[in-house]
Batch of 2 targets.
Target 1
Amino acid sequence: MQLTQDQLGAAVIAMKAELRNKGVDYKSAFEGFSASIKQEIDEIKALDEQGASLVPELDFAAVVQGNINDEQKALIHKRGCVVVRNTFSRELIDDWNRRIADYVKKNGYYETPDKGLDKYFSSLQKGKPQILSVYWSKPQMEARQHENLALLRKALNRLWHYERDGQQEFDPDRECLYADRLRQREPGDNSLGLKPHIDGGSVERWLDKQGFHQVYRHLLNGNWQDYDPFDAAYRTKTDEIPSPAVCSMFRTYQGWTALTPQGPNDGTLQLIPSSRVVPWMFLRALQEDVPPDDLCGAQAGRALQCVPQWHSLVLEGLVSIPKMNPGDTIWWHPDLVHAVEDAHRGTGYSNVIYIGAAPYCDKNVAYLKKQAEAFRKGESAPDFAAEHYELAYQDRATESDLTDLGKKQMGLQAW
Ligand SMILES: [Fe+2]
């Protein structure tokens, strides 16, 4: 989708007028949805106050043996997130963490002036980021193509409803590699905090008729009870506005792998652990108290923010994730509001490799072609700001570092 911020107001006015003509009572739909979501947020707050974890937890060994029971599945569907303990061994993680630190240090990443090209998150960051625009270190590639993640993502992908009328929206058993960045956050840092947001498109959700309108079809018909966050139908058909750092792949989950221990107050991830918050925000923007040219502040080519002015009801449900140990992984639905704690008050580095799940589908395969080109040249991954820090880096991963599985996931070898 091509749309600039200047053109947004007129497009929103036109779309809202078109939706009004559908004759759906969005006010009463929203009121019903709000009452329901309030109950859910109250439950989250009560559990959080009791010190209970809101993020369901599984153990890697159990997952790959197929031991996820119906109760666990239902809770993951409801909360939209899951921690998988012991995805990697401590030994392997310590090796990756050390080698990543060496790679960054010996190639002078911190000595290179910030190129200032990453504007996408500029309205979210409260200072200089500690997320590194490093995509191609060998440990990152080893982690992405690791068999454990392949097994785990098969299981997690299967929590989606990916078949419709005999057609697969995506193949849960094959994965596309999505090269993302690193976080190396030092103790005492108070600059990284990211405000509550979602990635993967903002205004498109209301303006893209072929893709997002189909994803949110039940909401647009006023039948908010029928909306299923894990229904994959049309999810791979969405049309995003190209912008640095907008994920243009379809991800079943965003996620990261913990390289160091990190818990609440260590500058870690926060979530609103409900998979219904974004659909609620979708209907929120269609209410009469929102200016006709506005979608609760959503901007073209930026992360979609969850803001006190419009979304205070759900913001009360923002909680920190439980303590993560090296080798644990966390996964969250692409429509889950998340944030990063303002301050790191802990004593050690809180480091992660961002690795989500991007299953095989036409949309993702199309991206792999561009990404493979960037990989060969050592450029920044194509979804991200064109900073290209790693062009001349020593010890960068090359094709010879790919396993057969890695080549398939990179689109360099047929499955
Ligand atoms: Fe994000």
Note: The domain at 5-409 is CATH 2.60.120.330 (Jelly Rolls).
Target 2
Amino acid sequence: MAAEYLFVLLFICSIALAGWKTSNLSSSGAVMAIMIGLAIGYSYGFEGLFILGVFFLSSSIWSRLFKKDKLGIEARLAKTSIRDWQQVLANGGPAAIFAIIFSFTGNEVWTLAFIASISGANADTWASEIGPLSQKMPFSVRSFRRVPKGTSGAISIIGTVAAVLGAALISLASLIMLNDMDSTLFFLLILSGFLGNILDTVLGAFIQLEYKCPVCNLRTESPFHCGHHTERTKGIPFVNNEFVNAMSSLFAGILMLILS
Ligand SMILES: [Zn+2]
């Protein structure tokens, strides 16, 4: 048993180190990834880490691919594709919470919530990495107008399909730990993840912070641009992209608790 935990620890540390080496994680992001990995590895062993790994690896691949097609979008975002601790916590924190509750209660329903929350995180990440490849500008669910790519709260057909596929991949990966998987459960895990992504879009459209740069007039999620503080144009002060991601992933898990 002790040997297995040691392997889990070594495995988590090497994945975090690889993520840091390949600039997918900042050093704070790597430390947070180890903490989340430990919570999930403690509760579910390698099977849980496999599902987390599918999320981490597929998101990292998508953020690398077609990078030149997504140039200009990073200027709108507060963060780069090198994920820091807040981004890692927002995406993996809800799953870690469900995993810890499972380890205390032993009730399988928390495992379903755990998978759904990762399904939601993966749906969000795939939608935001693949959506901007759309030829057309996305459609804001708040103004019903076309807005620049990378705007939070905007949807495109490609992004929506990507969200469904992102959720489906996690549902598929969860076959490794769910012995009683059937088509209904498979569908519910995709549905929860996808609805988590819808919540992400709605919160992104209505309450997420957006600023305007006083120098170049760019609308951005960053509080700084062109060396100046930007001005808030909409949103609630603490509601940044990480907050919205965490809420959506948490919601996907809670929805699965209710549905199952
Ligand atoms: Zn500017």
Note: The radius of gyration is 18 Å.
